[in-house]
Specification:
With 190 residues, the protein is an alpha+beta fold. The protein has one domain (4-184). It has six helices and eight strands, in the order αββββαββαβααβα. The strands form three sheets. The chain has a four-stranded antiparallel beta sheet with strand order 6-5-8-7. A hairpin with a 6-residue loop joins strand 3 and strand 4 (51-53). The longest helix is centred in the middle third of the chain and has 16 residues, at 103-118. The protein is elongated, with a radius of gyration of 18 Å.
Length: 190
């Protein structure tokens, strides 16, 4: 799991197309027309969009982004070293919380991240890694090692198109709409 200090230390260096941005939207240039949200279970955002219903898991991810500003994500890619036109995204987005995270866990979190992106609350940018962030949690994870092993084994299979496994580093960030939603989230302590 990423430490708060590690992510916050790097978050001010999050760049987009070569410029650094200190804002929590990451400088992504989004232009969502937001109204003040009403509550966290069924947030009202824009007049066109209507209420935004969030699951408990989606709320947890939004709270992480509220705390850290950005989350390190990656994409596992298979490619062919002889033909640069052959490239497949095998798994994305990948957000690793523990080196032993299983495929099921990572896919579940990935689905949540995709749903939040679909709702316009976050961006998933595979071309914007967190500058200076150590992605060792991703490269040393059991899942990534399994992925590389699978690609290596596949090389010897007739008809297997890919002979190389790669990883692309990126980041997840709140959109302005997402910022409005997280500002409205109030967690009651039991």
């Amino acid at each position: 799991m990423c430490s708060k200090e590690e992510i916050n230390e790097k978050s001010h260096k999050h760049t987009h197309h070569g410029h650094s941005c200190g804002c929590s939207c990451g400088g992504h240039g989004h232009s969502h027309d937001t109204e003040q949200v009403q509550n966290c279970g069924s947030c009202h955002s824009t007049k066109e969009q209507g209420p935004i219903n969030l699951s408990r898991e989606e709320l947890e991810i939004l709270l992480e982004l509220k705390e850290f500003n950005y989350l390190p994500i990656s994409e596992f890619i298979m490619s062919n070293s002889e033909n640069h036109h052959i490239e497949f995204s095998s798994l994305a987005p990948v957000y690793i919380r523990d080196l032993k995270d299983t495929m099921e866990t990572v896919r579940s979190i990935g689905s949540i991240l995709k749903e939040l992106e679909k709702k316009g609350l976050i961006t998933l940018d595979y071309d914007i890694p967190l500058q200076g962030y150590d992605y060792t949690m991703h490269t040393e994870s059991e899942l990534y090692k399994y992925f590389i092993k699978t690609v290596e084994e596949g090389k010897n299979t007739p008809g297997f198109l890919c002979d190389r496994g790669d990883i692309e580093f990126g980041s997840a960030a709140l959109t302005p709409l997402g910022e409005s939603v997280v500002k409205s989230i109030h967690v009651e302590e039991d």
